[in-house]
Amino acid sequence: MTDTPRAAIEAVDIHVAFGTLRALSGVTLAVKAGSVHGLIGPNGSGKSTLLHTLAGKQRAQRGAVLMNGVDVTTAPASKRSRRGLSIKFQLARVYPELTVADNMLLALQAHESLPRLVLSRSRHRLHQSTLDRLEQAGLAGCADDKASVLSHGQQQWLEIAMACALDPAVLLLDEPTAGMSPQERRRTGGIIAAAAQRSGVLIVDHDLEFVKDLCTELTVLAQGAVVANGTAAEIEADPLVREVFLTRV
Amino acid sequence: MVVARVGERVRWSTVSTIGAFVALGALPIGLSAMDQSYWLQFSTRLLLLAVLAMSADLVWGYAGIFTLGHALLFGVGAYTTGMLASRWGWVELQGLIPPAILLSGLSAFAIAIFLFAGSNRVGGIYVSLATLALAYAAERLANGWPTLGAANGIPGLPIPLLFGYQIDLGIRFYYAAFAVFTVAFAVVVSVTRSQFGLSLLAIRDDEERAEFLGYSRQRIQIAALVLSGLLAGMAGGMYGLHEGFVSPGFVGVGLSTQVLLWLVLGGRGRVWGALLGVVLLELLGRVMQDRYPRLWPVLVGAALLACITFLPDGIVSLPVRRLRERFRGRGRMQFSGEPA
Question: pTM for the complete prediction?
Answer without folding.
Answer: 0.88
